[in-house]
Design goal:
The protein is α+β, with helices and mostly antiparallel strands and 279 residues long. It contains 5 helices and 12 strands. The strands form 2 sheets. The chain has a 6-stranded antiparallel β-barrel with strand order 1-2-3-6-5-4. A 6-stranded antiparallel β-barrel has the order 7-8-9-12-11-10. Helix 4 packs across helix 5. The chain is globular and about 75 Å long. It starts with a helix and ends with a helix. About 7% of the residues have low confidence.
Length: 279
Amino acid sequence: MIQSMNNSLSTSYAQLASAFIAAFLCSSCATAQVDATEAVYKKALDFTVEIKTSTLTPFSGDSAGTSRGAGFVIDKSRGWVLTNAHVVSRSPSRVEVSVRNGDFVLANKLYVDPYLDLALLEVGASVQSANNVSDAPLWCGDLPSVGHPVGAFGHPLGFKYTGTKGIISGVSNRHESELLQTDAPINPGNSGGPLLNRDGQVIGIVTGLVNPTEQNFFIGIGFAVTITAKGDCEVLYWAMDSERIRAEGCPHPIHDFYGSGLITLIAERLNALGAAKGT
């Protein structure tokens, strides 16, 4: 009888000890996950920028007025910032960029692609000389699977440098190009900002949201242009390594007044990638 009670007590103590250990380990894991998430957003502060665009005479499809969005630094040495085409307008416009704790400075449009909703800006010294600025790490691998945790970072509704999180909820071809679908909260002011994976790498450029009421606020379905779509990563890294960026004229009428020649080079590179892949 006494031996049986001792055995029962030993078993209870062992179960209690196991429960305490499990709880401690779970707490440690949760703390590690929180620390990792905080590190992702802390790092994003160093490459995310704020963009202000003023358009006086818009092309068809654009709007006159001043709008704001986000972007991120992809080449500090050149002062290059990546964002959405709709953030900077495909029309002639005044685009200004601000890094964290910095003033707005005038930016040059190097490349604007309304089809991919992609734009490349040249900001110059304010990015090149800033101590609190670094290049965004780009994820150039396969598309993330449904359920992959992600975070959006930008300036939703004017709340600067705000992070939200969710998952990849799908991949959509609804809007004529391959888009990542996410339930991470996205609102006006997020456009052009990074969509980050759990390692803090940019996997997409936040581009918009869907609301069946046509009101411009988030109800759970947002989209991001994929960094990997159509070889974007290869194109960007190739362009960053090219010494020919300003060597050729722009054949596309939308881009004639930019005069950078980057669209010619990117088009050539896309064609080469397509030929290599047999597409």
